């Protein structure tokens, strides 16, 4: 079995590498995936199916455990009563993938004292690990299988060593044949730094093991690509890695391992969970400026800083043709306090609450400040920017229709158009993903309302 493919050791790239990519050596991360040719924004770089997945508890019973699609008429597994499926097709597919090895023992395993003593994230790991192992036992030759994805899974870099990474204490569902302890340890040691959160329109719905994507993509806090998830009635979840901007031939393709908006905690998370120090321009800038200053308590002072932020982000120049792209490294030092994570959270809460309570002036002011911050911290065409532009368009629309006709400002209408067009431009790069009732449908709906009002 080929567990350790490296650039140096083989001439011909393995068949799991798509022709958009080649592997090259990386000084700290073993290998890196580089583009073989020019890639336009929105190009698909890699499509890869999951090796195993698990739904979050919040989604259990409202999404199919196999295809992850929402379904009001799910049917429960009559064996264990703990898995739900769209239909016989999804049930049969998951039965063959892993469930036939788990169904009988599943409930006694999850009600055991050992399982119940686990933290929530460990419970997810424990069940996902059981899915992975059960799947392996169903491959030809089980734990000695030559299966491509299994080989790639075993060849992944392990996460940093810490006690929770040893698998010896992690209970798993009893599986026949039982996994050799070294395989069990090896796979679990690769969970923390390789698995992915599966999301639909920015909401996490599950976790997944996608060995090929893990093997290929390193992290950047200023990524040029992003992963989206395709939910289809014909199979389990597929990951699609999409270019966010033009990528030149030979350029490394990176994904964000965490939310690039985590400006204060990401260094620690990357070190603890992934075992490396990020050297992207953004992290170098944050290290250079040191601890972020406190946010001023006075309302006037904060409001003046917010005006300076929107002016630095050049928000007034917004047109439907292009979003400004302010450079984080040039952020004036007086604005560094606004890079605190708590400030972004608070601003986002103010925007949502004010929109909800129909305080549109407050909502639009905080929403535009939040947009300035997003443009500063997120890379070009990042979906958070597009989703926020859509929220701004909805808020501006509600403000427009709630105003009395004599107050109906043409300028506000124009704002709706601009936000909506920009939301479309950004979100169309990632394209359709997750559930079908996504932001693109909402953009079409609001565009229709706007046209009808004209
Ligand atoms: C999902 S793997 C990435 C694929 C890896 N390059 C390989 O050759 O298999 C994650 C691991 O790669 C390394 N890594 C990823 N991004 C990195 C970066 N920007 N700098 C240093 N190491 C990185 C870390 O060891 C991390 O735990």
Automatic annotation (TrEMBL):
<keyword id="KW-0862">Zinc</keyword>
<feature type="domain" description="MYND-type">
    <location>
        <begin position="64"/>
        <end position="103"/>
    </location>
</feature>
<keyword id="KW-0863">Zinc-finger</keyword>
<dbReference type="Pfam" id="PF01753">
    <property type="entry name" value="zf-MYND"/>
</dbReference>
<dbReference type="InterPro" id="IPR046341">
    <property type="entry name" value="SET_dom_sf"/>
</dbReference>
<dbReference type="InterPro" id="IPR002893">
    <property type="entry name" value="Znf_MYND"/>
</dbReference>
<dbReference type="GO" id="GO:0005634">
    <property type="term" value="C:nucleus"/>
</dbReference>
<dbReference type="GO" id="GO:0008270">
    <property type="term" value="F:zinc ion binding"/>
</dbReference>
<keyword id="KW-0479">Metal-binding</keyword>
<dbReference type="InterPro" id="IPR001214">
    <property type="entry name" value="SET_dom"/>
</dbReference>
<protein>
    <recommendedName>
        <fullName>SET domain-containing protein</fullName>
    </recommendedName>
</protein>
<dbReference type="InterPro" id="IPR050869">
    <property type="entry name" value="H3K4_H4K5_MeTrfase"/>
</dbReference>
<feature type="domain" description="SET">
    <location>
        <begin position="41"/>
        <end position="258"/>
    </location>
</feature>
<dbReference type="Pfam" id="PF00856">
    <property type="entry name" value="SET"/>
</dbReference>
